[in-house]
Amino acid sequence: MPRESNEATQRLMTVPREIDNPASYLPTGNEYLSIPTLNPHNGGIQSINILHMASRGLIEFCGKNRDDLFLPTLWVEGEEHDLAGKLRWDREGHWVPRFGCKESQLEIQGTVCAPVGFKGFMYVLEISRAAAGPAPANAVSTNGGAMGNAAAGHASSGNAAGAKPGQRIFVGMRGSWVESRRTIYTSKRIHARHCAWYNKWTQGLTLELRPDVGIAALAISASEELDTCIWGLGQGLANREVSCQNNGTDRINFILGKEYNLAPGERVALAFYVAVNVEGDGAGTNLFDMKRHGWEKLLAQTRAWLASHALAAPAGLSPAFARLLNLNLFFSYFYAHGRAIDTEETVLATSRSPLYYVSAAFWPRDSFLWSFPAVLMTDRVLAREMLFIGFTRHLRNAGIHSHYIDGVLLYPGFELDQLAAYLVALGEYLEATGDFDLLNEPGMARGVAVLEKALWDHKHPSEYLFDTFLDPSDDPVRYPYLTYDNVLVWRALRVLSMIHERVGLIQKSLAAEEAARRLREAIYRYCVVEEPFGRMFAWSVDLAGGFELYDDPPGSLMLLPHYGFCDGADEIYLNTARWIHSGENPYYHRDGRFPAAMSAHAPHPWPMALCNDLLALQAAGSGPLAGVVPDPLPLLLNLEMDSGIACETVDAQSGRVKTGAAFATAAGFLAFALARALR
Fold it and tell me: Is the same domain home to 284 and 392?
């Protein structure tokens, strides 16, 4: 056979933008609301977003540039104290961001918590004063709080604190709602009215995005009655009306807060609640419900939920292992899935963060091969729902490049791995749970039949190989028969055989099993080539003598033992692994601190490639593969990636994100690989 060059061909490829100076964020959120851009430098929240089914993507509320949507504020004795650069962060339960700092004899702690099951989040500020210290000379102000009474839109609650002497502090939250965006892949500004008003019932501010009728709203209040609640249009706070609105081209600024007189040894806590809904009244009612529960109870419930869903690492392993595992587990859980604010339906997505370059869309492969295995480890109820959504809402475009979150076609192009992914995930679920009752749910049996027929539509007329148009990087293939993709079809046929046998269709079960056997034989007959390391698997073939040597981290030949196609001692597989990790492979990065496989799609080291190696070693046990593949675990533990969260590729020297920040489905794959490594 002639050997084909590995140089990139003149195919139309969707190459990601490289990130030269990545920003650091501490994303958090829950199923209803995402906070992707919490800035660790100053504690400011630059944007929040919600899934909106009618908009087929994300709706974002944004600050801009140096203006945060929410920024904690502290005044001491009438002087504002800048906390930027002084905050020390950690995460409670590997997910809830929390900072601490010292300032002017004060201990300050901030916690950003989005409790599971609630349409909102809390920003809790706790301030304590040292037990001893010089008495302040100034007396406490009594009306309008530290920000004064003259600002626009003020709603006063009277005196901010009692008459006892103490240190006069103002604890607040300021912000600028600069613009709103709709995000599908990229973010686009929404030109609609921004409305703001004081809600006497919730004792706080409501911000509503209103093109005609409201489509999204925020309500903001606090755990105590505020003595400062001011807002206005433009650069200042000059509007004295009870409500204000603009056409979406000017900002709405606001300040909310409360003044205290803090005695030595005294502590105060003020929780700011922010709730979301499709319009202002609904946001207000959800905010009121959160206030009824109280921030301490909601925080305790969140800690308990996180503890019950986290994956434990055995004693003796580095704490960094547990942090990496569970941070990525929870990021994938809350950012690769969520509930639409307007329908409350579960949504599957690549990422709910606008920092990911193709965010807020559905890829079958991403959801079912990468995030699904992690969900199955921690929440079988959600795993079951994911399958039902895939086999119903996303069935009509199964195997097509990407979908809108409601199942409508977004990006055409057939991908065999994405078609097989549905059945591979279903098989994993059935084997792990024994829940064959899922097949009796409305639409599931039809979904299995539709997928089975779609597979056969891509079979070669005479040989047992199946074609594809795009590869696992979503780029056009050079040759139509990909070895990795056909291994996934082999796995899917085995699943179909199991399902048919379970429901009593014995002849169909035997036919699927026979098809899997013949496909496996065809892969060894047509997809194995002679190369410098000996007989190995080609990446793709055309059945006319042409083949390509290559490997792609989003769908790697390293995973063949993981899917049960061969064992790690198979000499053909071992030679393939040797080639992938050698200088013969132009897409293996051997230099730098972080050697790993790359791809033509993004020629930098892929953390996913290290996950592939980890899963291959786990599946192979202590066999000869361990002498071929370098241990990927130390590399994964030392990668910074995207502030500890999986990304598409990293810089080979720094280990920081290079492409594909906030890659939520890949975070699930990373968590899954780490958990499997524990076995």
Answer: no
Q: What Cα–Cα distance (Å) separates residue 366 from each residue in 150, 324, 381, 538?
A: 53, 20, 19, 24
Take residue 475 and report the two structure tokens written for it.
Answer: 């780029």
- Do residues 539 and 550 lie in contact, with contact meaning Cβ atoms separated by under 8 Å? yes
How would residue 8 be classed by pLDDT, with cut points 50, 70 and 90?
A: very low
Span 149-204, pLDDT tens digits: 333 333 333 334 444 468 899 999 999 999 999 999 999 999 888 888 888 888 88
CATH number where 63 lies: 2.70.98
Q: At which of 250, 281, 309 does a domain end? A: 309
Q: Assign 245 a pLDDT band (cuts: 50, 70, 90).
A: low
- Please write the tens of the pLDDT for every residue from 89-133: 999 999 999 999 999 889 999 999 999 999 999 999 999 998 865
The dihedrals phi and psi of 8, each to the nearest 5 degrees, come to -60, 135
Indicate if 292 and 388 belong to the same structural domain. Answer: no
Q: Is residue 373 part of a domain?
A: no
| Bridge partners, 411 (sequence order) | 402
| Domain boundaries, position 491 | 379-628
**437 and 297 share a domain?**
no
The position carrying tokens 């995930």 is 425
d(CA 153, CA 229): 7
Going by pLDDT thresholds of 50, 70 and 90, the confidence category of residue 410 is very high
CB under 8 Å to 531, separation ≥6 — which residues? 3, 549, 575, 579, 584
Token pair belonging to 444: 């599931």
The per-residue b/e assignment along 621-631, b for 16 or more CB within 10 angstroms, e otherwise, is: eebebeebbee
Q: How many domains does the chain have?
A: 2
**Cβ atoms < 10 Å from Cβ of 679:** 6
End-to-end Cα spacing for the chain: 41
Whether residue 580 contacts residue 573, with contact meaning beta carbons closer than 8 Å, is answered with no
Q: Name which residue leads in pLDDT, 114 or 148.
A: 114
What is the structure's pLDDT at 157?
Answer: 35
pTM of the model: 0.92
Last residue of a domain, one of 283, 309, 335: 309
CB neighbour list of residue 660: distance below 8 Å, 6 or more residues apart: 16, 356, 357, 602, 647, 648, 649, 666
What DSSP assignment string belongs to 368-435?
IIIIHHHHHHH-HHHHHHHHHHHHHTTSTTTTEEEE-TTS-EEEEEE-HHHHHHHHHHHHHHHHHH--
